[in-house]
Diaminopimelate decarboxylase (Helicobacter ibis), 415 residues
Amino acid sequence: MKNTNAKNLPRLNGNLEPQILKEAIKQFKTPLFVYDLDRITKRYNELKEAFGGRKNLICYALKANSNLNILKHLHSLESGADCVSLGEIKRALKAGIPSYKIIYSGVGKQDLEIQEAINLGILFINVESFEELLRIELIAKQLNKTARISIRVNPNIDPQTHPYISTGLQENKFGVSIEDAKAMYIHSKNSQSLEPIGIHFHIGSQLTKLQPIEESARKIASLTHSLIALKIDIKFFDIGGGLGITYNDEETINPYDYAQAILDSIRGLDVTIICEPGRYIVGNSGVFLTQVLYEKNNSNKRFTIVDGAMNDLIRPSLYNAYHKVVALKDLEETSATDVVGPVCESGDYLAKNVLLPKLEHGDILAILSAGAYGFSMSSNYNTRGRCAEIAVKNGEIKLIRKRENFEDLIRLEEI
Ligand code: LLP
């Protein structure tokens, strides 16, 4: 079988050429995450331009990749932040993102987190249940403040994505029904401690079909019209995140079609659009580099054992997610192999049944599209230090997070 890997590599785009990756490895070893900041800029600008015709704010979803350097970079592009914990809010602020561009979402917020969000004066809190609304009201009252809120409405639409990352159906734990949302808005309007200023929906992640988003936006826009008729002043129309990317060769949504569908749905409404993209901004901008330890055959099945593992990049193990694997080696002949890590679990793999050339100790594999939900979901399982992270900008390599060493791993433990 012919090796198409070398040809695939330029799909990494711009600065992440093999030479740069090899230089990064020389300096910082493997396993390693490398991010292309120029590509992040390009993705951010694409989305920003697509919504250009309307008032809009892009609130980057930190959960996809919350490295402070990436956040600082996005802040320099004027991005806001979608946060799901006090930790993420603090990260956004530390990167310089002003509180008026920060929104706070999540299905279970702690009292302290709500308190801090109100005290910090963030743009609004996305509320996910009546119970939570009452809690926020109580905390705001105790603080003698008014909490700006938006309600996450579950439009009950199938997003046609992986069930683990689908959130817009009634059977999911996220948001409230249209009927409940109405009652919550009326309650908020009548409260001294709550100010309802937004409406929110997010139906899932890695969305590659426009129709479910379009349908949801129309449903939520129609609810917005009826709220405005009730003199509830909705200023922000928060469409969530979820825009899918290409991992293999799947067709996904063009940002202009996406924006157009949203703009069509909100015709007649004077609202600022808020969008919460994570994966779209950073997913294809990152690559995970791992080194081959050795190859082995078990009953004629080929395994390529590498130094990266499920604790570094859990998406294949957790969702059976596909990440393209490219060998930084120019050999013509390839055969099928499973790329597996050293962790003691059968589920520890990075790729299954992929065509790769014969590999030797020290050869490098690039696992593509690892910029989103890669490092941010990594762990210390098997007492493995988390990887170093590198940013590349204008062809220059910069360390943006050191590799964790043994001392880092045991620092908080007491004997
Ligand atoms: N807004 C809300 C309310 C969300 O729940 C999420 C993602 C986003 C925005 C950003 O979604 P994105 O634009 O990145 O698709 N770990 C999974 C993805 C989980 C997504 C959770 N919520 C994965 O690796 O595929």
